[in-house]
Amino acid sequence: MIEASSIKTAVSRPMRDVFAYRAILAAAGLALGLGLAACATVDEDKVDATPPDVIYNQGLAEMKNGKPTEAIKKFEDLDRLHPYSELSRKAILLQAYSNFQKGDYTSCIQAAKRFATIYPQSPEAPYALYLIAESYFKQMPDISRDQEMTQKAFEAYSELLTKYPDSKFSSDARQKQEATRDQLAGKEMDVGRFYLQKREYLAAINRFRVVLAKYQTTRHVEEALARLVECYYALGVVPEAQTAAAVLGHNFPDSKWYKDSYTLLQTGGYTPQEDQGSWISKAFRGIKII
């Protein structure tokens, strides 16, 4: 079973390459308009007179020196003290990135969501959504635990690809979205195997059915079909067992799972035979399995 850690190693790339994305340092300024209620109230007589560009450059210097916490403070000050300056928009996004850099994914998500909400038409909006997805991805647990973060990562990558399919982050997002899909399918398989061991066949079938319905492009689909053969055969529902084996053999003729399923059916004198009216057959009709 693949774990989140191995997935990340396989598909992640250094975030410094992402940070090279020039747009986050070259955005045109817009009035914040929204989200100011959460900012601290500052007495006008005590407002820091430091120009916004000075605070901004101080923040960049802290980032360059490897001090994300200090950088975040500078960008927060800029956002708070000069909310209508040209640099305030950049400050929000750089808060998100700096929090990502220090591993504070919750704060990164909050800042990136705020940016994406206020500036959905900004050239940097795809980067904000990418940071959100990456933050969830970094928190994916191993397969034995609850997959809430994996689901959120999948949804965040989906949002990015739906809204900005041609962004410079699309290729990496698609690759990691498939990794999250595989992880979610793996969780369903893990639970299905648990029920199968306990001979709770109907509960197991429900889990394997999810894999066929939602995760057909993952590597888990072969085993899911084979497990359905086991479950249905154990229940005495032979036509469904035969159908699962036939679909498995048609799509994965060289699979060890197909060989095991074929052998199991032969013990009862049966062979794989597809029922076109079966939900299994319908689930695969017209679907190209990779």
Give an overview in words.
By secondary structure, the protein is mainly alpha-helical. Among the domains are: 22-123, Serine Threonine Protein Phosphatase 5, Tetratricopeptide repeat; 199-284, no CATH class. It is built from 14 helices and no strands. It has helices at residues 4-11, 15-19, 52-64, 68-81, 88-102, 105-118, 125-137, 148-163, 170-197, 201-214, 221-235, 238-251, 256-266, 279-284. The longest helix has 28 residues, at 170-197. The protein starts with a helix and ends in a 6-residue tail after the last helix.
- What does the largest sheet look like? none
Individual helix count: 14
Q: Provide the CATH superfamily of the domain at 22-123.
A: Tetratricopeptide repeat domain
Low-confidence stretches: 1-47
**Which CATH-level-2 architecture of the domain at 22-123?**
Alpha Horseshoe
C-alpha end-to-end distance: 19 Å
Helix content: 55-70%
For the secondary structure, the number of strands is 0
CATH domain class name of the domain at 22-123:
Mainly Alpha
Shape: elongated
* CATH topology annotation of the domain at 22-123: Serine Threonine Protein Phosphatase 5, Tetratricopeptide repeat
Look at the structure and give the mean pLDDT. 85
Radius of gyration: 25 Å
Q: Proportion of β residues?
A: under 5%
N-to-C SSE string, H for helix and E for strand: HHHHHHHHHHHHHH
